[in-house]
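Input record (one chain):
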Amino acid sequence: MTALTLSTAGAATLRADALVVGVAKAGKTLVVAPGAEAVDKAFDGRLAAVLETLGASGGEGEATKLPAPAGLKAPVVLAVGLGSAPEEGESYDAETLRRAAGTAARALSGTKKAAFALPVASAEDAGAIAEGALLGAYSFDAYQEQKDGRKPLAEVALLGAKPRDKAHKAAADRALAVAEEINRARDLINTPPNDLTPAAFAAAAQTAGKEHGLKVQVLDEKALAKGGFGGILGVGAGSVNPPRLVRIAYTHPKAERTLALVGKGITYDSGGISLKPAGHNETMKCDMSGAAAVFATVVAAARLGLEVNVTGWLALAENMPSGSATRPGDVLRMYGGKTVEVLNTDAEGRLVLADAITKASEEHPDAIIDVATLTGAMVFALGERTFGIMANDDDYRTAIHEIAGEVGEQSWPMPLPAELRKTMDSPTADMANMGVRMGGGLIAGLFLQEFVGEGITWAHLDIAGPAFHEGAPFGYTPKGGTGSSVRTLVRLAELTAAGEL
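The corresponding structure, as predicted from the sequence alone:
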């Protein structure tokens, strides 16, 4: 993992392998952002002019390398675009700084130490830059024997932040904990499904539990059968790798509220008997992204010492076709007794989540939030960078949407139209796992709502779009697993601990 330090040294005097500065657009003019004054001075006040000559425009996502002049200890200067310069008296928003730092960290792959002289007007800015740099430096090469030799940026030295300032240090410490846990989630998502089976995922939770003082309970296939977890067992019935239900809990002695987080953990999704068409299988190792996000959030809450109890439920199964697999038309008796007719075995995530939500409800938490790469319909509705939010409480749904925006994650509130519920009626069972085709993402939410305990506030995050990025990296977002929703969930836990939710 990339190291993070706060430095009081000046940009011109710190010894580093590269120096990161920000540039922005001010009308048709390129301007050097605050924090880089000493660097601009070393260029005789002509840094912006030199960059313009090299074709730099200051646009977001742009990175321009140039050799450093005499007067700087670093041999290379990297200028990253910040977009439009803010109005006088205003500062750059946190997400702009976060993305710029991520762009810089990716561009400096293979570098040992980089000094970041981006604008720091507050502790929040320091945290955003640190977080962006640590997330941008991420790489996953565990399965590459012939590596290209370009290791991730080894150290980030954050200039402008104040090591002795409690707020600045706390922001940096928080950024380090959150970024490391997001990268833990990314590693899990990127791990091939032949290695990340339900049992292997459960073992990873147990290892983390021992490291961070968390209570971890694992229900194997025998315990699941004894307990009547028909949804999880039904989904995992076709695989040689049996399912697991993991409870991983962080408790604080002063906590007055409890959050239950439920994550879909399909370690590989073939669709089961309702086999996915060609071209839709290759990335299905990512179908456990919700469970990875929940796992990472619980560990992050423990590392941050939040005064709130956070319990994670990881519903883990592999959805495979075989002679023992659940068939379309089968009826499953879910945990709690409700029966579900399975019309489509590729609508499996809601089945494992339903069992886990019912079990989580028995502990009467203040709120349940489930996270899942649940429906392709949500991707059609919101695209590949935005997750949908549904809830049984409009104010809570709005709060989560606002929190996501605060931490830089794109989300959108979605409805739960009551008239769609009847389309899941079944002549054979209490309900079916499918309804009408249109509005499929909303129907999935309505299905899950049926299993939430009475009087419990509940929200559903469908992260099917942003959980796995197949395109070119951008900002702090890598190719592959992204760790989507972890920042939102951690902030939700912080605000719950503070009594603001």
